[in-house]
From TrEMBL:
Pfam families attached to this UniProt entry: MFS_1_like (PF12832)
Superkingdom, taxonomy of origin: Bacteria
Record's protein name: MFS transporter
Keywords from the named record: Cell membrane, Membrane, Transmembrane, Transmembrane helix, Transport
Organism expressing this protein natively: Brevibacillus invocatus
Amino acid sequence: MTEIFSGNKQSSAGGKPVSLSALYLFIYYGFGAFTPLIMQYYQSINLTGTQVGLISATTPVVSIVTQPLWGIICDRFRIRKSVLVLTLLTSGLIGLLFPVVSTFALVLILYTVLSVFQSAVVPVSDSIALGYVKKHNLQFGDIRMWGAIGFALAAFLTGVMVEKWGPSVIFYSYFAAMVVAILFLRQVPEEVESAPKFTTSMLSGIKDLLKLPRFVLFLTASFFVFGSVNANNIWFSLYYQEIGGTIAGVGLAFLLFAGSEAPFMKLAGYITRRWGLELTILIAASVSAIRWFWYSSAPSTTAVIALFFVQGISVGFYLATAAQFVRENTPASLQVTALALFFSVGHGLGTMLCNLTAGWIKDNFSTLTIYSFFGTVTVIGLIPLLLIRFGPWKAAAEDKVDATR
């Protein structure tokens, strides 16, 4: 069983790879039940595109503040596991409240509170997993790919259930997944690696991080590239139905899309070892840009489904390598803070821009135009990635990071 989950027979001691892989499986099962199908809930309570955009921008706005705060708490007090338990349970409980509210104002308030706790889940779980894979010489993608599998299964199964029983299923599935994730988290050691001594404040830590050119360029790229990827998770449901698909078809699409991420996350380890992190990330972002422009041309649902593996190349490669890039290009004493800042910019500011703009475009133009916008901002994000790959900062950045370790 350990070998199945971890993908590395030699790393099976103590069952930790199984627990970490299962943790990702159920965390992202919850996300897969929630994010791709939340548009069905919004439509059931008659929200406009602009209102959906505002609500969808709530998590990014909150994350800008809360993710660095969660990161600094974890770095200072070394309580990553406790923080993750708290945020998983609380966000699951808050999710159960959505079926009883039906106005824009109440949904906005509830989503804001949810975002405070949900914003810690990804950076903290990534920090725990990255510490483990570094210590045991594993590939992060081998564990992270189980998140893609969980997301894929949830999107499909929840899509079928939503079509049969309505959008309330979304929130019950989300809560159940968070609870099961906690059960597996309990099997993960309190500290999977020795934490560095915390010696700086949050503001000075962020200031130090922003002095690293490669890290700043990557933040800029993630603002555009990751922002459009996250926004697609919200708007694809509406898009797919407008080009002739069904709700169950949305679930099938996400099953194939997210399912394709897992093998490409596995492949990302090989590509990275052969050609490096920078080129792997650049390939992922380039394919994303092509994908969004193709979507804007209104292809058939059959074509969208048939080319499902495009998501594996773009999103799978990016997810498997982005956190690793952050870790390798920032000081060891600021690992969680660096990851939190990365997610605040990519999942935060970038997603906020894309969702707000997409909502306005939906009300004033069309869903197809939303994807033209996604393609444009992703092309902009390619510029800093090209500078990372071919720019003059690589040696200097590595020397500075190494000196702080």
